[in-house]
Amino acid sequence: MGKSRASKKRAKEEEANAAEVAMAATVQRLQEIFKDHSEQGIRAALLECNMKQHFAIDRLLSQQVASNEQGASTQTPESSSTTTTSSVLVPNQSDLPNVPVRSGEAVPVSLMLLPNSSLLPDVISLCWRSDFPSLSMANRDLRAIVRDGRITTCRKQLGLVEHWFFVFEKEGLWFAFDPYNRAWHNVPVMPEAPYWLRNPGLPAREIMCVGSELLTCAESPVDTMHKFQAFNGTWSLVAGMTNQPAYGHAWAVHEDKIFAAGGCDADRKSLPSAHMYNSETGLWTPIRPMHHARMFCKGAFMDGKFYVVGGKLSYYDKLQTTTAEVYDPNSNAWSLIENFFTEDMVIGSFDITVVNKEMYHASPSGELGWIHKYSPRSGDWLFMGCFPWDSLPTLDAYLMAAYRPVRDQPFEHLVLMLWRMEKSDLKRYVDVYVAAPTVNLNWVLLTSESRDFGAYSQRLAGVMGY
């Protein structure tokens, strides 16, 4: 009897050890095949994790794909993109012991019976973000991993970034575009519509994206913000800047931090104040103010410094300033760069972004719209190419950003999100173009989506990468 129990115990220990070794090998293989950017390979590797364990991930993911295909088959002809019915919100499933998959089948309560499940976040972090809802439906352990942010830590360690493009539609409705799978996803409804929609005469407030968070200033209470956390799919009202601008401020992201400066208050007085947001603590802290107040300015982070460019020094100025202010976090000091822009670059609207540690400037001025790249050595702006010509004639607004076309490789591409009104059907579209940052930009259209956009929806859009 004793030998029988001891042998069974040893057998269980050996089986558990073999399972841990198999899981470690699977993680290593996932990292290797990930370079091929093959979703099929990732799913096949997940299936290999079975190894005498109770895995049903492949069935769940197959069910998700079938659901997406069904949604695509019923899409309206007005949209040229596949819009999924899934949500970036992790489903808040009831705590049922089993989740039905097929007739007569159910997902086991435990996906894997390992004594140490510490490797699970490593596996899940390599899945597509669009697969998180299906994975979280499997059991409580996976749902907890998806919702508590451990995936963010794993992806940072792997140098993995997956960019999604978030766009405001109207009345608190948002949606997101997944450029890797060319799919649109619904976002949970914002509890309160942005205040400028209730007061159309006011400019839009900026939105800021860092990691898995989206932030936008709230109207009330003063100095608060609406924050969307992509992992758990929830909106919350959180503390904002101590001297929070009403609108028109510059901002930029560096690692886990947002730097913001300028803007104006509710009385349209321009502000010199500046703040830094730490996504790990969720807190804003004041930093040294700029030399001069400015509003309607743009921000970028390059070479370890925060650049605030363009904008007006006061609300009633007709021309924008060509002077840039640069903040060095190490010395907590601002410096001035005179004539950072040429006068032509700030005549009308413009946008800036940093791609592969180089700053780009976009402006629809001229016949074709211009993209320039900044040269820190000479202080000159080099012409890189034009806007996609077919969208410019009907262009309502635009946003320029950067994204990684391959999630584990740091090389970035330029993104142009263009809003246009199509007179033939009186509908507003958003087009998403990407291009490698080379001379004579070769734009590729990723998607063109028509939704019931509000007149100012393009003022709330951003790229979230985590």
TrEMBL record:
<keyword id="KW-0880">Kelch repeat</keyword>
<dbReference type="GO" id="GO:0005634">
    <property type="term" value="C:nucleus"/>
</dbReference>
<dbReference type="InterPro" id="IPR006652">
    <property type="entry name" value="Kelch_1"/>
</dbReference>
<feature type="compositionally biased region" description="Low complexity">
    <location>
        <begin position="73"/>
        <end position="87"/>
    </location>
</feature>
<dbReference type="InterPro" id="IPR052439">
    <property type="entry name" value="F-box/Kelch-repeat"/>
</dbReference>
<feature type="domain" description="GBF-interacting protein 1 N-terminal">
    <location>
        <begin position="25"/>
        <end position="64"/>
    </location>
</feature>
<protein>
    <recommendedName>
        <fullName>GBF-interacting protein 1 N-terminal domain-containing protein</fullName>
    </recommendedName>
</protein>
<dbReference type="InterPro" id="IPR009719">
    <property type="entry name" value="GIP1_N"/>
</dbReference>
<dbReference type="Pfam" id="PF06972">
    <property type="entry name" value="GIP1_N"/>
</dbReference>
<feature type="region of interest" description="Disordered">
    <location>
        <begin position="67"/>
        <end position="100"/>
    </location>
</feature>
<keyword id="KW-0677">Repeat</keyword>
<dbReference type="Pfam" id="PF01344">
    <property type="entry name" value="Kelch_1"/>
</dbReference>
<dbReference type="InterPro" id="IPR015915">
    <property type="entry name" value="Kelch-typ_b-propeller"/>
</dbReference>
